[in-house]
Amino acid sequence: MEKKVIVVLLFGLFCVSCAQDEAVAPPTEYPPAPPEEDEPITVMENKSEKKLSETIMTILEHYKQDDPLGIPGAPIPDPMPIPDMKKSFSMARLNMKNVQLYGLKKFRIEHVLADVTEMKVEATLSIDVLTVHGNYTLNTLFSKAAGPFTVKMGKVKVTAIASMEVEVNGTLEAQEMDMDIKFESIDMDFQGLGFFANMFQGIMNSVGSFVFDSIKPFVLAEANTNMRKDINKEIKKFPKKFPNSISPFDQLVCEVRNQVRAKGFDPYLVPDYNNSVGIFDVGLTHTWLYGLSSFHRTRDIKFEFKNKTVHIFLEVGTGAIKGTSNWEVSLVAGMIAKDGKVSFTVDYIRVS
């Protein structure tokens, strides 16, 4: 129990320190002001120590509770805005706007396992309830219903596995992070259905799965980015350097991988696609690609000088690239439609 509290305390300090660093950082166009001449450095150190001790006491007091939720001061977006969603049913079309997700901060740390040999960290979090609020519009050929809606998902489990690699300067850095989220129950409340109430009962299961599948990529993308950034920020403070034997070209590939993640291209949200084929309208929405930053050198690099020309032979490949998308085929301005969800995997891509 004591070891678990220590691990949680360290994890909490990492998150809180990231939030405090971001909160007190001065604008980039202004250099930080130097300390006043009449304020000794020891006074500043005492203030820093006091701030750290207060943070430790806050976290300790928090975890003295019988059932602590979240981490005090952790930079987690709650509520989280979700882009507009739409889905077609037989003779009906559902649109959702102004969607907000609540409850991300109220998590419990169930399990944390660090494998130094495999350079991996596994974690499991649980959330009692995630709540989605927004406004909906349900259209058919003959009438329309609109109003607020609420979707509650119970007993949510989040699993994460992060891999570490040694960088050029000998520091560790989180590279790949696989995450998944599941739930056990779901309750929905769509107000103002009126005439559509009976019809809505028949499609309720489809609506619940659709809402969950739609918010899942955005939640995982946000968590993936923030967690990797926070982990790497704290790892760089670790004084220990690790040996590496990375070639100059592999160093360049590693830097490009980091830039791909930093610019938000992994996971990558593909722009929606819509096209007309005869009397049919075809659309792909919420298309996500995962693994675009997994490229690496697959063969030795060779240089050849021939006929006053330098030739370079190299081969770069990727790991498995996965993707998901919502598809829809419709006619009569979307009133008659068929839709679904597609998942695909490309084992690897190689470019020579």
Automatic annotation (TrEMBL):
Signal sequence annotation: 1-19
Domain of life: Eukaryota
Entry GO MF terms: lipid binding
Source organism phylogeny: Eukaryota, Metazoa, Ecdysozoa, Arthropoda, Hexapoda
Pfam (any one): JHBP
Keyword entries, A-Z: Signal
Organism: Psylliodes chrysocephalus
Residue stretches spanning the membrane: none
Protein name: Uncharacterized protein
